[in-house]
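ENTRY TYPE: paired fold submission
RECORD: A
CONTENT: sequence, then structure tokens
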Amino acid sequence: MDYSSLKTREECDLAKAEVEFERRTYANRDEDADIADVRAGRTQASTTSQLAKVEARIASANAVLAAPGIDAELQETTTDELAALQVQRTRLVKRQRQSSGLARFLAAVDAEQVAAQVATLTTIIAGIDAHRATLPA
């Protein structure tokens, strides 16, 4: 990086402040990504738990429907409940897919980008400091 366009210590100080601010925004973005990872993990655990409960209720409804001699009202109620549970299972499976695979890969790409940007900005700040030291007071 060429720092020669910074002609005074004041320009160096202003440039450093701007670059430090930029670095802070990336560091903050990194913290936000960490929080999002925690949230995603909690969502994944919650979704897995909810899915297990729905699967158990589906199995129970299927057992009721398979029982011999159930009355028509219980059969209708259980069939309706089973249909609703299957829709709920579909939504939960979809949510589980969305919180894995591609989304995790793209989050990792973003994390790598943020880390590289923070490292680059830190190097630039050091370069500004070194250049500033060469300028007259």
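RECORD: B
CONTENT: sequence, then structure tokens
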Amino acid sequence: MSSEPPPLLALDLAGTFAFGLNGALTAVRAARLDVVGVIVLGMMTALGGGVLRDVLLDSLPPATLRDWRYYTLAAAGGLIAFALSKHLHRLETPINILDAVGLSAFAVIGAGKALDFGLAPAPAILLGVLTAVGGGTLRDTLVRRIPSVLSSGLYAVPALVGAALTVLTVRTGVYGLPAALGAALTCFLIRMLGLRFSLNAPEPPETSGRPNPPHGGT
């Protein structure tokens, strides 16, 4: 079972469900996969970043495979997306909010775990970002799309900020539940502002104004 404080654990589980839902929606809309493919892609989106982090940390078996709540929620999100895909467009805003919650929790928890394993600040930040966006990148690769995190929207940037704040608070000796929630909230707010105002990371001058590909979320 997870050793995270209950508030962070709740955010982590909610984000796992949202990532499973969002990943499965991509499988339905972009790839037209069958029910097995939809659930597998949803679970990979939800669990992939954490699995990659734990493999790199040599923390095996990965935490998300040792706690039944994670893979159950990921599979449930995929199954719901498959069954209700025609109607979920009405819930796009709540799904995006839950997705941002997951992004924030994954970035903070991933960076914190990397520090617990003795990594230096920079690698810990990178692993925090990997935890947050790795599953979505695997998803897009499997359906033969340029990973959306590399091409559109403020997605990796909020995760980077959240992970960096986590590392900073640990290194300055003020890390605790309030600091972790503050780092997650900062990540969440940046992501939501990006969605609200359609903000993107800077592009090369010759490609500015190019239409962004649709973002499936991570």
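NOTES ON RECORD B: Residues 6-196 form one domain. The mean pLDDT is 88.
STATUS: closed
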